[in-house]
Write a structure and sequence with these properties.
The structure is a single chain. The radius of gyration is 17 Å and the shape is globular. Strands 1, 2, 3, 4, 5, 6, 7 and 8 form an 8-stranded mixed β-sheet that branches. The protein is of the alpha/beta class and 255 residues long. Helix 1 packs antiparallel against helix 3 and helix 1 packs parallel to helix 9.
């Protein structure tokens, strides 16, 4: 049976993916293919390269992303993601989809044509970073003649790219539709509006998952809470571990 793993965007909340994946692996559940967007694409790339969840969370805790983002602050008032390419290439020096141990599909959005795009071959770092470019916060990344932004604009749970290939789909969604945390920044409001605009389409994609993991406690965190990486990891891990204990999943049977 081929297992497909789908990872949503969610800024810092995407760190919960790593904990959830650790809990899955402890149950012997390992993906044969990964589809991700935004922070889910970043985590997916690290996992597909072969890093264990404990290694990935340690890298995130040890890496300060803020200096790279501040250094890239542009004249148009938007941040630039390009400087973060050095971080990704440090951990995945081969920088190709073909070098990954597990097939990965990254979803991004062409902000000019309005198209949803999938990348699964060739250069890796730029499509992953483009998929993380939240509109209104980051400048689009130009790649292959296109202006690319966050894949979550059109598809924040990209199930479709692997539906025909996977027998059992596990979706991890880290953007709760209800929030317990006040929205204090304009950028948070912009991102929240984006998530709510995608609400109905994302809920429809929930139904396409054989197993959906959505830790409700993530509603207490902001997309910028990178300094709470340890907590986010533990929430993803603890919730998924409990869910698997309560759920009877037989991956040897047809999905």
């Amino acid at each position: 049976m081929k297992i497909g793993l789908v990872l949503s965007g969610g800024g810092a909340r995407g760190i919960a993916h790593i904990g959830a994946i650790k809990a899955l692996m402890e149950r012997g559940i390992r993906p044969n293919m990964i589809s991700g967007t935004s922070s889910g694409a970043f985590v997916g790339a690290m996992l597909a390269h072969g890093y264990a969840p404990d290694e990935i969370i340690e890298m995130i805790i040890q890496t300060s992303f803020y200096p790279y983002i501040r250094f890239g602050f542009g004249a148009n008032g938007l941040l630039h993601m390009n400087k973060l390419e050095a971080v990704l290439r440090k951990y995945i020096p081969e920088n190709t989809f073909e070098s990954l141990k597990t097939p990965l599909i990254v979803t991004a959005t062409d902000i000019v044509s309005g198209e949803e795009l999938q990348f699964r071959s060739g250069e890796l770092a730029i499509p992953v970073l483009a998929s993380c470019c939240i509109p209104g916060l980051f400048s689009p990344i130009r790649f292959q003649g296109r202006e690319l932004v966050d894949g979550g604009v059109l598809n924040n749970l990209p199930v479709e790219p692997i539906m025909q290939e996977a027998d059992f789909i596990i979706g991890i969604h880290c953007n709760p539709f209800t929030l317990d945390k006040p929205l204090k920044k304009t950028t948070e409001l912009v991102y929240r509006s984006l998530i709510l605009a995608m609400h109905s389409k994302t809920k429809e994609r929930f139904k396409k998952c054989n197993l959906l993991i959505e830790p409700p406690e993530l509603s207490k965190f902001s997309i910028f809470d990178f300094r709470k990486a340890g907590q986010l990891f533990e929430i993803g891990y603890g919730y998924t571990k409990r869910l698997l204990e309560e759920t009877d999943i037989d991956l040897n049977a047809p999905a």
